[in-house]
Amino acid sequence: VSRQLKEEIRRGFARLEDPLAGLLVMLESSSDWKGKGHSLGYCITTELQLWIKAHPAVPQSGTKLKKLQARLLGMLSQCPANLLDPLISIYQLHTADRNYLLEHVSHLYLQGNYKEAAILSIKLKLQPDQDVEKMCTPLLLQDKANLVEDYVAEYPELQRKLLQTLDRWCEPGFNLRDITRPYQGLSRYKPEKFNCRVLSKLVFRLLERFNVDPALCPNVINQRHLRTLKYLFYKRFVEKTMTEENWGDHIQSTVGDNRWLQGHLVQSLLRHCDARGAARWAQHCQVPPEMLPQAVAEELQELHIQDRVEEVTKADNYESSKKKDCYQLPIPRENIHFLQTWEETLQCWQKVLQPGQVVGVDMEWKPSFGMVGKPRVALLQIALKDEVFLLDLPRLLEQAEADREKEKLPRFIQMLYSDAAITKLGYGMSGDLSSLAATCSALKGMEKQMQGVVDLLAVDKQVDGLSLEHSHEEKGVRQPEKGLSLLVQHVLGKPLDKREQLSNWEKRPLREEQILYAASDAYCLLEIYERLCKDPESFGLDSDLTESLVGKHSKKPRTKKQLNKQEAPAPSGQEYQGPRMEASGPPAPISPQEFSVVCDNMLQGLGRYLRCLGVDVRLLDNEDDHRKAAEIARQEGRVILTSGLPYQTLRSQVGEGRCFSVNCSEKAKEQALQVLKHFNVQVSLSDIFSRCQ
């Protein structure tokens, strides 16, 4: 706003007998103020707010102010968001009669203005005197979950009431139509967004945001555990990618003594095992005999220790034979050290913190299977050429806390990552460091000081022939390799044995299989790096691989272990494209009008945002198969924007550089910036809203 206009506005207020009444007259007679952005009405209002501070005698009181407040309330439902706070302040709405304000909000609600009623309630802090279920239900039906979060944000009691309501709606057998029936004629009603799956996700988001005890929502928690149970049965009996001991650990911790889950466990056991197998696992998980079908109960009575030994031996024989087809650790078992004391860890430091050292670094944590909270690192693996150190992080942090030397462990890790003379190898380091920061707050922001880091996730996209299809056809395996295992298979000849990946890494003592898996995961990085540096050309990489990689690390690569989701780790290169090995510059700048994309159906928000910036966008519908994106891209010469598992499939169906994977955890604006930067799209003011929305 120009200085001249501001001065003119202030002179105008000084000439008015009643500036507050004058502003209302202006706003009531003008349509300009109802638009978005900084309208003339907005400028006048904010200037009056400042002018009043300089003239304390101006504000009204008594009957006159009440009349002005009543007039203002009649206008507020049409008021743009940026005018609410200034107007509420100028007319001192917080001092108005609370019952009168509640009555006005109730009137808005009854007229069907649910969003306006909620926003005004938040601004006037009326929530404690309102029914949280009544206020939030229509907002959820209109897919306004963010407004619901804001509505309860400052009131822990309302947060608990809302969570209990959502949990009640997710109870098995509850009919959601009983909730939706009174709102059939609701504008912007989105019934597809109102189901147990969506509500469960909202519950977990609220639990995490407001740090509420998950025990408050037993139905949602049980449903999530049930999905975990089904997933574990799939991993063990369909994919056959989990060892029996590992599977048993997770089944036991998932089911616990919950009778409802125990019932589902028994049903699943009978679908996948015979009566004897079901009895053995029912015994292992301490399922009460009265919950078992007669055939299983009879087997349980006859079950002897010897039977179990024989069963386990059979499984172990099968599994040990399978390991021959996987990567084998080339160092003796006695060179793998499990460290639980500071004395042992100091010896490790002295060997690791040597100039010129090359170390493989990896981390493990207990999979959360979508439950609340960020994963906390349970094991830190550091591999040298002749030995591997496995650091028991929870135990070491506990000891440091007891010794009042909490900074010891973070200091060592910071020294390691910030030393340019030590080459650190990892795979998806951003995910590891994020979990490390959640485990030890002193390590937050450490990625800014990292030097001498090589993230092999940035390499696997560049390696010739590295794809799911290649792995599948060449090796003839039923389950195609993914991520690091695929890179190991291509460079070293055999994949990693990943059956211990989804282990309970917090349980002590670790099983022998876990120790070998953890050591292999870190050590294989050394062998891959050595092989690629010796002969980069045979893998389609730049000959000066060492110089092009050391010191570069991915700023936001894909999290290596997607264990907060109930799925195996996704294929490599999904959310981070990695530095090009060729010494080519960035693509030539183009305008949004020249940039055509097709957005996969999980990126509709990104597509709409890019369209606002003038990009030519086609969006897949929710029911469309991901492969449709490739058809459209080929027919119309568009770039595919996708995320997650579809990326690996789609990128093989279009030309190089014509498929880009977006980080799904970011908001549409950040995703758009990532896309524009990658393709060097230059947006000008005239591009914005140049296309029909």
From TrEMBL:
A Pfam family that the UniProt record links to this protein: DNA_pol_A_exo1
Disordered, as annotated region: 549-588
Top-rank taxon: Eukaryota
Presence of keyword Nuclease: yes
Example of a GO biological process term: nucleobase-containing compound metabolic process
Keywords: Exonuclease, Hydrolase, Nuclease
Biased composition range(s): Basic residues: 552-563
Gene Ontology MF, one: nucleic acid binding
SMART domains tied to this protein: 35EXOc
Domain 3'-5' exonuclease residues, every copy: 336-537
Protein name in UniProt: MUT7 Exonuclease
Organism: Nicator chloris
